[in-house]
Every structure is written in structure tokens, then in C-alpha cells.
Automatic annotation (TrEMBL):
This is Fpg/Nei family DNA glycosylase. Belongs to the FPG family. The keyword Hydrolase applies. It comes from the Bacteria. InterPro entries: FPG_cat, FPG_N, H2TH_FPG, Ribosomal_uS13-like_H2TH, Znf_DNA_glyclase/AP_lyase, Znf_FPG/IleRS. The lineage of its organism: Bacteria, Bacillati, Actinomycetota, Actinomycetes, Micrococcales. Residues 235-269 form the FPG-type domain. It comes from Microbacterium aoyamense. It catalyses: Hydrolysis of DNA containing ring-opened 7-methylguanine residues, releasing 2,6-diamino-4-hydroxy-5-(N-methyl)formamidopyrimidine.
């Protein structure tokens, strides 16, 4: 699932490459991706792209006084080509393609078994329902300890779930929540309300440094290589059975809702095993 660091890199790439270009054609192959039927993406043909921004895990293209909001969902991403190039072998299918006046094409892809990509043509970015509900973004330089405390204090909800709750903290998903909790040395299943002041401080430091550090590390990487760069940078996420780089224990995983979570027992749970391993 694309998370804020990768979507930020994508937004910066498109702001650099597509800004000032005019949309000359829109080809939507999967009409279930269109979420504003009264204003389909085809209505943007002839308009100029004036910028690209990120909102949480969502992408926004400013186009001719309107906005193309792109919800990447769990498996959505983008592919950029200069002219009608064949996609790489095994590449996910393009559900929609924007053709630009310089011959470039922006293809929006989805690798899932169900359609997670969503396209919205709106007047303002926050007219996209999911964007309008977003909480504060930990990548914002003005995000403070008090902002995080307001999210976690009194919350009787498992900490990993709180970190992924977009209405509370925008942009964090399954992978970076694992990384944040490992760095903060906190259990993914502890209730947010149980954290003391020192633990909340560790959580704030881990959250802001993980997200801002990942954004800096992804900047400038070709967009077709961002997923691989993200995977390579993970310390515990996707590392089940491998050695923890901090303490040498074995990284474990357990089922968490509809997905899994990875953690280090020594670093995070005082040696306790979670889930089926407990």
C-alpha cells in the first residue's frame, strides 16, 4: 500500500514533469474507478496541469481550475512514459491514462484483485470524502507532541490501529506503523491510553523521524523503483523470521485485522509473543 513518503515522492515527480502540460486525452478502461460520474476525468481534456500535491496517502493534480483527486487505495500506483511505450513485463494494468501535449503519458494502475483506485474530479482537494476527513500529518513541520498526545491520550484502542487511523494521523499505513513502533520500542497491541508521558515522547520522536526520514530518502528515486526502495529500507515490516538489526532477536508477525503486523519481542513486548505464537 502506498504511504505518505512514496506518495510525496510521486507528487513531487509529477509536479516537476507534468506541471505546465495540457491534457490532450483521457482513456479510462475501468469505469468503476470513476467516483464523480457527473464530472468524469474526460472533462479535463484541454486543461493545463498546474501542480501536484499529496494529502495523506492521496494524490491531487490541479488541472485548469479544478482538481483530479486520486485515491491510490491498497494497490494503486502510477506509471510515467514518454510516448506510447509498452509497459514492463508483469507490470500492473493501467485503469486510466492521461495523455499530455508533449507526448508523455501518465497511467494510473491497480495491482489488486478488486478495484482500489479512485478518481474524483472536484473543485477543491478536500471535496474528496476521504481527504476531507484526514487528521494532522506527521510530516508537517508544525506537527507537535501536543498534536500526537491529543490523538492517543484516553484512546482505548491498540496503538498500531491508532497510527493507521487516517482521521487521526494522515499518511501512515501498515508498513510505517510497524517501523514507528519498533523504533519507539512499543508494543503494537498496547492501548494508546496506557502510554505514559515518556512513552508518548518516544512515539512522537519515532513517528516524525520515521516519516520525515523516509520522505527525504525516497525523494528523487524513479517512481517505478519507489516500492523496492521502501521494502529495502524496512527494519521489521516484511522481515518475519529474520534477525532484528537492533537486538538480534527473531522478528515475528501476527494477524492484525485484515492484515499482519511485524514486531521484535525483545525490543517491543518484553519478550512476549503475540497472536498465535503466544
Amino acid at each position: 500500500m502506498p504511504e505518505s513518503p512514496e506518495v510525496q515522492a510521486l507528487a513531487e515527480f509529477l509536479d516537476d514533469r507534468a506541471r505546465g502540460r495540457t491534457i490532450t486525452g483521457v482513456d479510462v478502461l475501468e469505469f468503476r474507478a470513476i467516483k464523480t460520474r457527473a464530472a468524469p476525468p474526460e472533462s479535463l481534456v484541454g486543461a493545463e496541469i498546474t501542480g501536484a500535491e499529496r494529502y495523506g496517502k492521496h494524490l491531487d493534480l490541479a488541472v485548469g481550475g479544478r482538481h483530479l483527486g486520486i485515491s491510490l487505495g491498497r494497490h494503486g500506483w502510477a506509471r510515467w512514459s514518454q510516448g506510447r511505450e509498452d509497459p514492463p513485463e508483469g507490470a500492473p494494468p493501467a485503469l486510466a491514462t492521461l495523455s499530455l501535449d508533449d507526448g508523455a503519458e501518465l497511467s494510473l494502475t491497480d495491482a489488486g484483485n478488486w478495484i482500489s483506485l479512485g478518481l474524483f474530479v472536484v473543485d477543491q482537494p478536500r471535496d474528496v470524502p476521504a481527504v476531507s476527513k484526514l487528521g494532522l500529518d506527521p510530516a508537517d513541520p508544525e506537527f507537535t507532541q501536543a498534536d500526537l498526545d491529543a490523538v492517543v491520550i484516553g484512546r482505548r484502542k491498540q496503538l498500531k490501529a491508532v497510527l493507521q487511523e487516517q482521521e487521526s494521523l494522515a499518511g501512515i499505513g501498515n508498513a510505517y506503523s510497524d517501523e514507528i513502533l519498533h523504533l519507539a520500542k512499543l508494543s503494537p497491541v498496547v492501548h494508546a491510553a496506557a502510554l505514559d508521558e515518556r512513552e508518548r515522547g518516544r512515539l512522537f520522536d519515532a513517528t516524525t523521524s520515521t516519516i520525515s526520514g523516509a520522505i527525504a530518502a525516497r525523494r528523487g528515486i524513479p517512481i517505478d523503483q519507489l516500492k523496492a526502495a521502501k521494502v529495502a529500507a524496512m527494519r521489521v515490516h516484511g522481515r518475519t523470521g529474520e534477525v532484528c538489526s537492533v537486538c538480534g532477536d527473531t522478528v515475528r508477525s501476527f494477524s492484525f485485522g485484515s492484515t499482519t503486523a511485524e514486531y521484535c519481542p525483545t525490543c517491543q513486548t518484553d519478550g512476549a509473543l503475540l497472536g498465535a505464537d503466544a
